[in-house]
Design goal:
Elements lengths: L3 H6 E10 L4 E9 L2 E6 L10 E5 L4 E4 L1 E6 L4 E2 L2 E2 L4 H10 L2 E8 L7 H12 L6 E7 L7 E2 L6 E2 L2 H12 L3 E5 L10 H14 L2 E5 L3 H13 L6 H5 L3 H17 L4 E6 L2 H12 L4 E5 L1 H5 L10 H6 L12 H11 L14 H4 L19 H11 L5 H15 L17 E11 L18 E11 L2 E5 L2 E2 L16 H14 L12 E2 L2 E2 L4
Parallel strand pairs: 1-4, 1-5, 6-9, 9-10, 10-13, 13-14, 14-15, 15-16
Antiparallel strand pairs: 1-2, 2-3, 5-17, 7-8, 11-12, 17-18, 18-19, 19-20, 21-22
Helix pairs in contact: 4-5, 5-8, 8-9
The structure holds N-(aminocarbonyl)-beta-alanine and zinc ion (ZN) (2 copies).
Length: 519
């Protein structure tokens, strides 16, 4: 029996079809020291001790999934999300995801760096797979303090700069909703986008009009609509689409690349699609929930069922939404998938039993994202296996500057690998999932596409339903600024689209009744 250290060091995956975003090829994969060393036919590494062999015949060998959007143990809306960094990342690897990117979110007026440190100290001892952190910008200040003879910048900008330079953060999320809590106004968005652009970071937005939501919620409650359906009714699609358009306009004004998190509606997806067709550098992230289920659940007669689907932006009652979003994901209008995994159990959701505005927002997804996308995307015939890899890992790795270390199976890449059985099926259920909450929004969904084994940095951490992983084995992954996939285009645009002043002779006529010459 190899020791854990040896098992981590040498691994041979035999006979599978290696699937990257651009090519599928039948090949063996040899891994040593956490990294892919060889990809090719009939590899025969020295059969010395400690070589673990996985048979992948008739299976796909794909890069481990990257979930771009999670909230583990997030203190939010009077509660704390149920999945912590241990249960959340364990569930992730059971589902074929080997890296998550969570969000460090400071309160208004509080330090971004402290939020980052807090989140990191929560995650480090618990993570079962690699992770990284986006940081939220929830307020803005340009205040400069001149005390002690030098300029002390109480500047969010300085914190962002330091996070990029010292902590490996290359993405910042701005909320256009959650009025008085996290929401920033247009001027603050402008400042934050300008700063992201300067630093080579990716600006992310939660795109919903927070003012309209606040008004809409008051209206619903006044009408006596207190149940979960009020959550959707107070923020219809156009509330999401308007904010999406506004964010794109502001980002474009400063030539900042924009990433729209949790795209939930047809309207918002269309706005992104149009912007991309106009050449704007914008990426849309639908999530497992918006691709796999819909907002008709808010009208379910069982309050607990309806409340379990409450998240922001909400799922949409138009049942054609998931299929539409999947079409756009397949054709390239939408780029990448996350989950917004932010789980609350029924007791936590019950904080809002008399008032939908108090239901903690969030749903599951980190375990089921890969299977849901395979089922609704590939098994349905909308995308091929390569596009599946692109939208579940490669594009995320490219946008967040992790590529080709992550999101690819090639010599030199991290050995984050999943053996995927496209023909096996599993039925999603809260009874069998590994997440901490007692409800699953995909309950009963039969999915083709099952992760048979998950390899994290060369170690088989999950195989056939059995885990071999301990808390804290995952690592924090730094992400350098200026991802070429994003910023080469930004630079290119800059070179050709700088306005220049019109050359004209000086004006010599009258100014306010006086001749310029006389002055
Ligand atoms: O409902 C949601 N989305 N909860 C998590 C916070 C956020 O907006 O991403
Ligand atoms: Zn959000
Ligand atoms: Zn979120």
């Amino acid at each position: 029996m190899p020791s854990q250290k040896q098992a981590r060091q040498r691994l041979l995956i035999k006979g599978g079809k290696v699937v990257n975003d651009d090519l599928s090829v039948v090949a063996d994969v040899y891994v040593e020291d956490e990294v892919v060393q060889q990809v090719g036919p009939n590899l025969k590494p020295e059969p010395s001790t400690g070589l673990v062999v996985l048979d992948a015949t008739d299976k796909l060998v794909i890069p481990g999934g990257i979930d771009t959007h999670t909230h583990m143990e997030f203190p939010f809306m009077g509660s704390r999300s149920k999945d912590d960094f241990y249960t959340g990342t364990k569930a992730a690897i059971a589902g074929g995801t080997t890296m998550i990117i969570d969000f460090a979110i400071p309160q208004k007026g509080c330090s971004l760096t402290e939020a980052f440190d807090t989140w990191k100290s929560r995650a480090d001892p618990k993570v079962c797979c690699d992770y990284s952190l986006h940081v939220a910008v929830t307020w803005w200040s340009n205040e400069v303090d001149n005390r002690a003879g030098f300029q002390f910048h109480k500047l969010v900008k300085k914190e962002m700069e330091s996070l990029v330079q010292n902590k490996g953060v290359n993405s910042f999320k701005m909320f256009m909703a959650y009025k008085d809590i996290y929401m920033v106004n247009d001027e603050e968005l402008y400042e934050a986008f300008s700063c992201c652009k300067e630093l080579g970071a990716v600006a992310q937005v939660h795109a919903e009009n927070g003012e309209l939501i606040a008004q809409g919620a008051k209206k619903m409650l006044a009408m006596g609509i207190t149940g979960p359906e009020g959550h959707e009714l107070c923020r219809p699609e156009e509330v999401e689409a308007e904010a999406t358009q506004r964010a794109i306009t502001i980002a474009n004004a400063v030539n900042c690349p924009l990433y729209v998190v949790h795209v939930m509606s047809r309207s918002s997806a269309k706005v992104i699609s149009n912007a991309r067709r106009e050449g704007k550098v914008v990426y849309g992230e639908p999530i497992a929930a918006s691709l796999g289920t819909d907002g008709t659940n808010y009208w379910n007669k069982d309050w607990a069922h309806a409340a379990a689907y409450v998240m922001g932006p909400p799922l949409r009652p138009d049942p054609s939404t998931p299929g539409f979003l999947m079409n756009l994901l397949a054709n390239g209008d939408l780029s990448v998938t996350g989950t917004d995994n932010c789980t609350f159990d029924i007791c936590q959701k019950a904080l809002g039993k008399d008032d939908f505005t108090k239901i903690p927002n969030g749903v599951n997804g980190v375990e089921d994202r890969m299977s849901v996308i395979w089922e609704k995307g590939v098994h349905s015939g909308k995308m091929d296996e390569n596009r599946f890899v692109a939208v579940t890992s490669t594009n995320a790795a490219k946008i967040f500057n992790l590529y080709p270390k992550k999101g690819r199976i090639a010599v030199g890449s991290d050995a984050d690998i999943v053996i995927w059985d496209p023909n096996a099926t599993r039925t999603i259920s809260a009874k069998t999932h590994h997440q901490a909450n007692n409800f699953n929004i995909f309950e009963g969904m039969v999915c083709h596409g099952v992760p048979v084994a998950t390899v994290s940095r060369g170690k088989v951490v999950y195989e056939g339903g059995v885990f071999n992983v301990t808390a804290g084995e995952g690592k924090y992954v730094s992400r350098p600024p200026f991802p070429p996939y994003v910023y080469k285009r930004v630079r290119q645009r800059e070179q050709v689209s700088q306005p220049v002043p019109v050359k004209r002779a000086p004006y010599t006529g009258m100014v306010s009744g006086t001749s310029v010459m006389q002055k």
